[in-house]
């Protein structure tokens, strides 16, 4: 339960006023690894866990017994953004994806974000607006590429986290439940309308091998709602589904926008339904999958601004701050495919190429980092001279920690790899069940 989790820290407004606005910081895979060691990343992990635990056993439609003025205000803001869609109709253009009117909608958001937040926040929070506005702007898609994906959904969750860190929202179970079952649900419906009206392209879609073209958090929160229920996981295969939780709503949304057999266009969700027996396992496994496939992918998180309230406490001169380092057992047992040779052999030859810039072997972005099979990456070794400088700073911090385990930088969670290959030794695609079964 939420009461068993550590409290979310508070950042006083007086301190926030001295912070610099967030900016794009992730440019390389090493930057992703650095981010996983920051305080902001751990704040986000704890925030998601608290939201997750707050909705266990609560279903839709949900009527908040004590909705706060803060919740009412943010719903009004989302309603206003929705009304802009009526004011900016789609243009009669022939493109399959991306109606140019979406750029007009986005430009209006960029021009009015400060006034929106001024109306949302009491005057004493005014100093935080430059620290929060970048997350709101990036929450609804890319206005350049005219697409939407899990990175934009993550931006909105970070927006809610920032508002909680400064205590516009209080980290109490009742308010956290409202954030999921009232605020996030309203945001989700707004994004669905944006996708339909402006025909937004999925950002970085994995096709049939992805969980969902656009969303991920709705499945995490929805599986939490069902975690202690007697409803079978296979229920999602029977239509129509009742709109009683975010998981069922997301499945129903897929049926609205896709045609054909479910097991063909949504194979990952089908594999979960047929291969994972309990919602508790679905919920814990989706957290692992979210961290690896969303937060651990540079192409997803490189467009998310970081810093400010989302503390980026890594300096170029000291990328491995001791107080942020996650300690592991030096003799940890790794998966049999964790050696570089095994990783390379697990990919089809067509997916392995040589980098023209460095001459090194290049793998798909989901491959395991090449490292020794018997030692944690920060354990002192004797690297070859050509790689010594790069290995000094290499590390793979642990995942967002399950609720039953200690949270924070000292949690011993590095026994699970950060990612798995998308193909097995027979070059067959791997599926989400591997995540939910703990590989």
Can you describe what's shown?
It is an enzyme of class 5 (isomerase). Its main location: cytoplasm. Helix content is about 45%, strand content about 5%. With about 450 residues, it is an all-alpha fold. The protein is globular. The model is unreliable at about 315-400 and about 400-430 (pLDDT under 50).
Characterize this entry briefly.
The protein has helices at 13-16, 29-35, 39-54, 69-87, 101-120, 129-137, 150-165, 173-198, 217-225, 246-257, 262-265, 267-275, 279-295, 298-301, 340-345, 388-392, 432-436; strands at residues 23-24, 147-148, 201-202, 305-306, 353-354, 361-362. By secondary structure, the protein is mainly alpha-helical.
List the helices and strands and how they pair.
Layout: H1 13-16, E1 23-24, H2 29-35, H3 39-54, H4 69-87, H5 101-120, H6 129-137, E2 147-148, H7 150-165, H8 173-198, E3 201-202, H9 217-225, H10 246-257, H11 262-265, H12 267-275, H13 279-295, H14 298-301, E4 305-306, H15 340-345, E5 353-354, E6 361-362, H16 388-392, H17 432-436
Parallel strand pairs: 2-3
Antiparallel strand pairs: 1-4, 5-6
Strand content: under 5%
How much helicity do the residues have? 40-55%
Uncertain segments are: 316-398, 401-429
> How many H/I helices?
17
User: From the helix content, strand content and strand pairing, which structural class follows?
Assistant: mainly alpha
Give the helices and strands as they follow along the chain. HEHHHHHEHHEHHHHHHEHEEHH
* E-strand count: 6
On the 0 to 100 scale, the average pLDDT is 79
Rg: 22 Å
């Amino acid at each position: 339960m939420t009461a068993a989790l550590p409290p979310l820290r508070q950042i006083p407004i007086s301190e926030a006023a001295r912070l610099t606005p967030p900016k794009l910081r992730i440019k390389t895979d090493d930057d992703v690894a650095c981010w996983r060691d920051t305080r902001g990343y751990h704040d986000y992990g704890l925030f998601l866990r608290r939201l997750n635990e707050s909705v266990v056993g609560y279903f839709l439609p949900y009527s908040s017994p004590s909705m706060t003025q803060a919740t009412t205000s943010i719903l009004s803001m989302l309603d206003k953004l929705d009304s802009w869609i009526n004011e900016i109709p789609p243009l009669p253009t022939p493109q399959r994806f991306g109606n140019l009117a979406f750029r007009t909608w986005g430009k209006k958001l960029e021009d009015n974000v400060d006034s929106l937040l001024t109306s949302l926040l009491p005057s004493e929070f005014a100093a935080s607006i430059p620290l929060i506005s970048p997350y709101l702007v990036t929450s609804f898609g890319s206005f350049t590429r005219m697409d939407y994906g899990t990175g934009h959904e993550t931006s909105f969750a970070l927006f809610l986290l920032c508002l909680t860190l400064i205590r516009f929202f209080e980290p109490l179970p009742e308010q956290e439940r409202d954030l999921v079952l009232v605020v996030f649900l309203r945001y989700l419906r707004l994004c669905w309308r944006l996708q339909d009206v402006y025909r937004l392209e999925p950002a970085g879609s994995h096709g049939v091998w992805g969980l969902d073209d656009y969303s991920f958090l709705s499945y995490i929160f929805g599986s939490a709602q069902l975690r202690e229920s007697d409803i079978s996981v296979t229920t999602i295969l029977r239509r129509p589904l009742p709109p009683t939780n975010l998981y069922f709503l997301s499945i129903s949304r897929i049926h609205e926008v896709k045609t054909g057999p479910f097991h063909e266009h949504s194979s990952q969700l089908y594999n979960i339904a047929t291969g994972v027996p309990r919602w508790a396992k679905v919920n814990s496994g989706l957290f692992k999958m979210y961290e690896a496939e969303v937060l651990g992918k540079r192409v997803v998180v490189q467009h998310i601004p970081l810093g400010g309230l989302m503390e980026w406490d890594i300096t170029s001169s000291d990328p491995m701050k001791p107080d942020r380092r996650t300690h592991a057992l030096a003799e940890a047992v790794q998966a049999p495919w964790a050696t570089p040779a095994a990783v390379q052999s697990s990919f089809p030859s067509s997916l392995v190429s040589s980098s023209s810039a460095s001459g090194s072997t290049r793998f798909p972005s989901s491959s395991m980092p090449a490292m020794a099979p018997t030692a944690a990456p920060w354990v002192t070794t004797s690297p070859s001279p050509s790689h010594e400088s790069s290995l000094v700073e290499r590390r793979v911090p642990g995942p967002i920690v399950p609720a039953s385990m200690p949270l924070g930088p000292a949690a011993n969670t590095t026994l699970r790899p950060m990612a798995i290959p998308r193909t097995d030794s027979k070059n067959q695609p791997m599926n989400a069940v591997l995540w939910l079964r703990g590989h």
